[in-house]
Amino acid sequence: MYPIVAKKCLNPTVTMMDIAAPLVARKAQAGQFIILRVDEDGERIPLTVAGYDRAAGTVRIIFQVVGATTEKLNHKQVGESIQDFVGPLGEPTHLAGLKKVCIVGGGVGCAIALPIAEALHAMGAEVHAIIGFRSRELLILEDEFRAVSDRLTVMTDDGSYGSRGTVTVPLQAALTAGEQYDEVIAIGPLIMMKFVVATTRPFGVKTTVSMNPIMVDGTGMCGGCRLTVGGKTRFACVDGPDFDGFEVDFDEAMARGSMYRDFERHAHEETCNLFQKEVR
Amino acid sequence: MPANLRPDKNPMPSQPPAQRAHNFDEVALGYDEAAALDEAARCLHCANMPCVSGCPVNVHIPAFIEQVRSGDFEAAYQIITQSSSLPAVCGRVCPQENQCEARCVRGKKGEPVGIGRLERFVADWHNQFSAAAPVRPAPNGHRVAVVGSGPSGLTCAGDLAKKGYAVTVFEALHLAGGVLVYGIPEFRLPKRIVQQEVDSLRQLGVDVQTNVVIGKTMTIDELFEQGYEAVFIGSGAGLPNFMGIPGESLKGVYSANEFLTRSNLMKAYRADAATPIWKGGRVVVVGGGNVAMDAARTALRLGGQVSVVYRRSMEELPARREEVEHAMEEGVEFHLLNNPVRILGYQNPDDPRDPKNGCVKAVECIRMELGEPDEKGRRRPVEIPGSEFVMQADVVIIAIGTSPNPLIKNTTAGLEVNRRGGIIVQEDTGATSRSGVYAGGDAVTGAATVILAMGAGKTAAKAIDQALMG
Ligand SMILES: Cc1cc2nc3c(=O)[nH]c(=O)nc-3n(C[C@H](O)[C@H](O)[C@H](O)COP(=O)(O)OP(=O)(O)OC[C@H]3O[C@@H](n4cnc5c(N)ncnc54)[C@H](O)[C@@H]3O)c2cc1C
Ligand code: FES
Known about the structure:
CATH topology of the largest domain in chain B: FAD/NAD(P)-binding domain
CATH topology of the domain at 2-89 in chain A: Elongation Factor Tu (Ef-tu), domain 3
Number of helices of chain B: 18
Radius of gyration of chain B: 23 Å
Shape of chain A: globular
Helix content of chain A: 25-40%
Number of domains of chain B: 3
Number of strands of chain B: 16
Number of strands of chain A: 16
Bound molecules: flavin-adenine dinucleotide, FE2/S2 (inorganic) cluster
Helix content of chain B: 25-40%
Strand content of chain B: 15-25%
Oligomer: heterodimer
Strand content of chain A: 25-35%
Order of helices and strands of chain A: EEHEEEHEEEHEHEEHEHEEEHEHH
CATH architecture of the domain at 2-89 in chain A: Beta Barrel
CATH class of the largest domain in chain B: Alpha Beta
Distance between the termini of chain A: 29 Å
Strand order of the largest sheet of chain A: 6-1-2-5-4-3-7
Structural class of chain A: alpha/beta
CATH superfamily of the largest domain in chain B: FAD/NAD(P)-binding domain
Distance between the termini of chain B: 48 Å
């Protein structure tokens, strides 16, 4: 069992938790992920490592409540434990040698982008961050990003905070203005990463995306996480989760991501009903 | 008492096909005492014991059958466990028809003695009636790490623990058992039997740590730094192969490993499961091994209308005969001498948001004929030009084999593997190219059998003991 040692709501649907998992904390690096099960008979879900404290032996996760499992996780409180927590899985993001990077984060993807921005900042690289949200109340981690960015641009779809529009607007502007990035690192919804890639491709700027497909084991055993990258089948859990954005087949990844949509919607509704009954 | 000279084995009591096709309960129900006594009386006690040489771990078969015949089932069990650590498992899943029973003299005129069925009977009897919990031996002060909790790892751990070693088993998944829990379905090997094996290891003092991926959470080198004096790698051959044909990433295409893991390990077959799986529809399973049979019979029980597509003929089909027969009785169809060339997907030209877009619609196959025998003497399947045809499908399960996972190799300097990714070992000890590191089971041989994995775990345990105790 893995105790929850801290919990904080970042916005109405996004929660941060620190989990005591000393073995994982000892090894975790930015870009890697863990797989957890909330309780016995629970499903296995991957969540990217949003931070770690090696001395305290804790790993930070940040998740959005999107389905039955994240709903159940969100109902757990400090002092309670989760059943299983395994990692760190996947390859860390390759940062060595980077001097100037644009980090693009969308929604809860910002939680994953932050440790990368922090690592780059600590290395002395110049960090430009663009973070985007649907609206002001969904904004997370702005101060944390500001602390490690040489330039921070906040975007909201509805213009309720920062500038109005998608993350590709300022990215396009920067590239057109002649900014020379060693790399653009994009983390967020598939559709956002697809458009980031479409924006950077004409400029030929190396673009890395972090993929988060459906997974079961996370060790290369099931192939459920497979993606087509550069025409080849790759397993996101062992070959990724980072891939060259120019090579990823996003349309296929989006289709595969919806494989269990009906099941998930139904399971989520049932879980919500259950929790509501408990409250009454 | 005279030998029983009837030519047939005592039949295995089983759930009727029409009933079992709709549940996940065990198909074979096991002999009762009368059937076991009667079957044991069929053994002729041949002086040269051909059955024993047919068994990969040389179980003293006539000796245990003699004890069954005299009604001392516990004594029979003790004889089996001198050579095999997992009798309740092997009695159920071993391919006896190619091993011990293939050499049985009774098989020349009629059916061989039901050795596997007797083994299962003895093991189940022991598990049910013999309460003696394993005794924890006095510690000998040495520590050994075992990577993977499949049959090879469990056996190696058990043998070492019985000698007083402090053994830790590291397992990547949340549950111990390897293929026995994530691959082989409940209806063939009830999970409580595997659990019993793991529980008795714990009673022996083995520390089973789940959720540890060696190569990620910890490396082999770190295990030595932590004071383990030897490491056994029994990490299996879990990496699924795909065919490399168009359409393999459509929605509804699974590797057999994924389909079986969802159903077995994650219990997706239960109505209230948290893990989803596609149920029902027209299911095409590609392949002809045990894994393909398990996937087909699982899909059938989930409500599917199931076809197995295999590129050779029934004669070459590598699955156990009994499993093929069971599958046929349950209603699985076999399309032999066919090979898929591509998987076709659905795309609604008028609605890009149609949820069915990107889903499997059909499999295009080509007919095959058998040509000249290859190096192994198996006749090579050759495509018949222009014979392509289309089979409707909603789910496609690819069961064409697995390879060893490269995770440990990639993180362990100096660990040599062969061209198929199998760890290279000395056959008589399991020693690898790294000093103090041993390996066995599917991680070495590629996908093989439970009994061979178990035997490899035993061999390595013996070698580790010799190396550490001198
Ligand atoms: C569906 C199916 C049906 C089968 N049917 C039969 C049958 O009827 N009869 C028969 O004899 N054989 C059968 N087999 C084959 C048999 O199950 C295997 O040969 C046997 O289980 C191999 O044992 P093993 O100990 O080598 O590895 P496995 O059973 O594969 O166990 C390996 C374990 O190691 C773990 N692991 C892997 N990498 C790591 C790591 N880096 N760190 C920590 N843990 C790790 C895995 O999670 C797994 O639990 C079948 C196989 C399958 C898949
Ligand atoms: S999650 Fe199973 S192979 Fe990647």
